[in-house]
Task: structure prediction
Amino acid sequence: MSRLPLSFCTGPYDRMAAIFDGSISIDGVDLIPMAVQQPMEIFARMLQNQEFDISEMSLTHCYALRQNGKARFFTVPVFPSRMFRHSYIFINRHKIKAPQDLAGKRIGVQGFQMTAAVWIRGLLRHQYDVSLQDVEWVEGGVNEKGVAGGEATSFHPKGLKVSHAGNSRSLSDMLATGEIDALIGAIKPASLRASPDVARLFPNYHEIERSYFKETGIFPIMHAMVIKDGVHLANPWLANNLYKACEQAKAIALNKSRFTGALQFMLPWLDEHLEEIHDLFGGDAWLYGVARNRKALVAFSDYLVEDGLLAKPMAPEEVFLPIDGLAAKG
Result:
């Protein structure tokens, strides 16, 4: 059987490195890999022009486009990007002292729909009882001007109070001057170090995020892998093979990181971090598959409904392709 030539695009992640360098192949596929640092660029290129056969995608779009019938891809339960988000709530220290102070304020965000912002709004509501109903959302670039991703990725619920920073101001600058009271999302503002008026809402975020995981069992998922609709429909075997390859690539990255003869990454306390991961997560924080991530996926669906980005909750089985037992075991 001839092998399929397929394009493949994710960020330059350690858990995908073995696929990019050819150490791991996707059975039946001649891969044409491309690493792109900026996730928003990947999403925009996939959503606008279906530029890739296989790519990374914002979890929000995986849910919302599937529910409204506009998804031109199928989603595989491989999650290349995950991140705790308590550390990505930035404040003007003269305007905000505590989480509850965010109610009714002007809050900057790259795009209301972005997955990081959905997780942050969810944790603010459910952990800190913050009402976000009367917030004015100000969209714009964090350290650059203009909304990241543009029209290709942005969408809003009806009735949202939203304005735009425009092309003359960055959200980072607006936070420092007090034009916005807080900023949430996936990028640190340059003013965090440059301005004495900008701070994190939770300076002890590492401790808080550890406690959050112990309490909820959730390590927030940012992105999933998707296959172009025409490619999947013509080759339904591909999803399982992609899943297997991603599990194998991740295992290689984990083993390399644990080598103690020399540090794999430029992290002076890498051994300490690995020990913490073992104690907290059981050795693998980057679990793939629906069953092992059901709690996080259900919570995310609920948060999307609360944000007005979904009309009703979606079970994971409505969003993700089924992966057979052999593939799910990795």
Q: What stands out?
A: The chain has two domains: 4-82+220-328, 86-216. The first helix runs from residue 17 to 20.
